[in-house]
Every structure is written in C-alpha cells, then in structure tokens.
Amino acid sequence: MLNPYLTPVNPKTPMSELLANTGTIAAIATAVVPQQGSVGIVRVSGDQAITIAQTLFSAPGRQVWESHRILYGYIHQPQTKQLVDEALLLIMKAPRSFTREDVVEFHCHGGIIAVQQVLQLCLENGARLAQPGEFTLRAFLNGRLDLTQAESVADLVGAKSPQAAQIALAGLQGKLAHPIRKLRAQCLDILAEIEARIDFEEDLPPLDEQRIISEIDQVTLEITKLLATKDQGELLRTGLKVAIVGRPNVGKSSLLNAWSQSDRAIVTDLPGTTRDVVESQLVVGGIPVQVLDTAGIRETADQVEKIGVERSRRASSAADLVLFTIDASAGWTQADQEIYEQVKHRPVILVINKIDLISIAEKQTLQSKIQKPKSKIVTAAAQNQGIDGLETAVLEIVQAGKVQAADIDLAINQRQAAALTKAKICLEQVQVTIIEQLPLDFWTIDLRGAIYALGEITGEEVTESVLDRIFSKFCIGK
Fold first, then answer.
1. C-beta separation of 170 from 229 below 8 A
2. Distance between CA 234 and CA 424 in Å, rounded?
3. Residue 381 to residue 289: CA distance in whole angstroms
4. pLDDT tens digits, 424-445
C-alpha cells in the first residue's frame, strides 16, 4: 500500500487549483542513486518550512537559527525521538530565497534510505510533495524570475556541454528577457501614440505614418535576429546525432574509438564484429555530439547480423549527419555505391579510412575519382590520424546549415520562437493595415497581438496551459 504522505498532487490538477492552495512543499533536490551520492538534499519551501525544520532538527550547542546560516545537528523522528540522520540544515528566510518563501534544506547522507526517510518526515509534519518544477514555478509567481529565466533553469540542469551551460546562464541572468522587454516597450509606445490620436485626434498633430512604419520595421528586424538563434539553441540543447555507416571492416569502430579516445567498440579484422549500435557522447566545438557506430551494412544470412544491419539503416535515417566510411585500400566499391544511395539524402561526410595502407599517388587517384559527396576527409583511425580534420568537417557542415557553433551569447527555444513568430506576423499585418489606409482602430488590433505575444515570452502575459507545459518538464526537486 502506498504511503499517503508520499502521494503527489494529481498531475492533472488544474494550475489554478494548485496555486490557490499552495501550502508548504517538499522534495528531494538531488539525484538518488544507490551507493553513489555522498550527499542528498531535501528541500522544503513555504510558510511551515521553518516550523518543520524546528520539529525535526536538533542543533547541539549554541548555534543560532538565523537566515542564511548552516546548522550542524541531527534529524529525529519527533514522536519516538529515533535518530534518522546526522545532517546539516540550511535556512533561507523570505524573501531572500529561490522561491521568495521560507526555505530550508536538509543536507543528509546520500544514497536512498536517508533522504527518503527525511522527506517522509517532512510530509508527515505539514508539507506536501512538490509537483515537477514547482519550486521554480513559485519563484516565477513570486517575481523572483521571469519565464525566460525559469526556462533557463531547466536548460542549465540539462546542459550537455559547457557552451550550452553558458547560454543557459546568460538566460538566467536576463540576457534574453532584456531585449524582449525592450521590443515590447517599443510596441507599447507605438500603441499609446495611435490610441492618443483615436481619443484626442483634434488636439494632436497628424500621425506620421512613415515614422510608425519605420519603427515597426526596426522591431521586426530585431525579432528576426532573435529568431535566427533558434537553430543554435536547439543544437546546443539537444546535440547533433552522428551515425558512422559503411561496409563491414572498413574501420567504423576504430573511428569511433579514435574520436572518443576510448575503447567503446570492439575492433577486429573479422567483418561483422559490430552487431548492434554502439554510442558515445562527445563535445565538438561546444556542441554535444552523439556518435553512433553501426553494424556493417551488407546482405547476410546470419539472423543476428541482419538485425544489426536493419538497426544501422534506421540509425542512419534518424541521424542529423552521416559519416559514410570506406576502406581506402579497397577503393570505392559497388557495395559502397549501394550504401551511399541509401544515405545520400542525409548530410554526409565521406571518410576515406585506412589511408595509411595506400601510397600518396593512390590516395590522389582515389579522391579524384569520387565526385560525391563533396565533403571528404582522410583518416587512419587505427593510428589516431585525421580526427582533427573530421571535427573540422563536422563543424563546417553545421555552419553550412547556418547554425553557428560558437560565439553566441543567447539562444531561444521552440516556445519562444513560436511567440516571436506570432509577434512578427502581427507587426507585418499592422504595416499592411497602414498601407491600405484602414482606420486607426484597425492598427491597434494586430499591434496588441504583437504585444501579447512578446509578453508570453517573459511571462507578463501567460496562461495556465503555458505554465503547465513549461514546468511539467522540470524534475520534481527543482
């Protein structure tokens, strides 16, 4: 039977109902891994947080229970006085906390048992289990963060590379919110000027239509610049999926091992050694890269190898980029041509491997014979040669797609891009309305739409469904 104290709020509970009865919430704020974590944190936020801490925690000596102090002591079961854990207690009183509510954190021993016992005690003494993202949601609702900063919290937790973390930190510091608010303020100024003419037309000089169009053009241009960062953001957040494909025994596994500087894949002289997709995670030019070493593609009667070949084909179809690998000593064979026909619809880099096994003249002849794909590199993966050239070629492919891999300081996500697109369309419609000489009241309709869309990004205009969609993706303790 489930412990009633550990039963979370129904995830289908409407946001309005959840916010109307906020109470005090608690959750485990660190990963719970058996025999792994040295420290586990239970976070509590709300008006009962300090009371719960005082009920469960005893601090020996003359330690002072003040905000932003760390106390050392013991957590006891309040009724039986049974010792649960030796711990630290961090106190953060409102409004100087992440949620702008009273917050306490129990820093317990890691693992599974200690933190779960402490969490259960918190729930038995006045808290309820937090919903996913509810700590950050409270920070947003209490004015501690805007919506772009809240999303940046999730991006920072899930960052797969140092550059992704830097972009998330920039968002957390308001680098995205600032230009959005500025654009929204410009639109509000334009709207105020138009509405003033509607209400006091006889007392004000005629409206300068060309200046209004020019100002809208300026806002639209800035929105377009922000929209251009969407692909950058997606690449940094989700990473690039790269599949190494080719005939058996062309050196695909050696290429993976040389690139990842590990022995993830088995390397032998026997064709068909790799029977399944082997994965490695890398970072290239600040971009997270998931590299998939696939089974050699060929016709075979071996049922197990057939399954591996089919998985290879699926992996290459789903990949953002294919490293089509051939054996330089064998040249471009008919089997290579057949595989290339299967992958040529994807972005492809030709990897001419085992280049150390042929002469310079043979290398030049081979390269001149191969017309497609245009992007080609040579490697001797078993000798760890050519990896720098491979990474350069990957980044060139990325940049050819107009996705800059470096030197960006902010990047929008899909939700923000949708709102910006809506704002841009509304502003373009305002210009059409002006050109068609429609009454001023019509100008304000789409202008208000643009203002609302920009407000959705930062949270100045927001619906429950948007909040549900954003915060449901967070982990429970954040």
1. no
2. 21
3. 18
4. 999 999 999 998 888 888 888 9
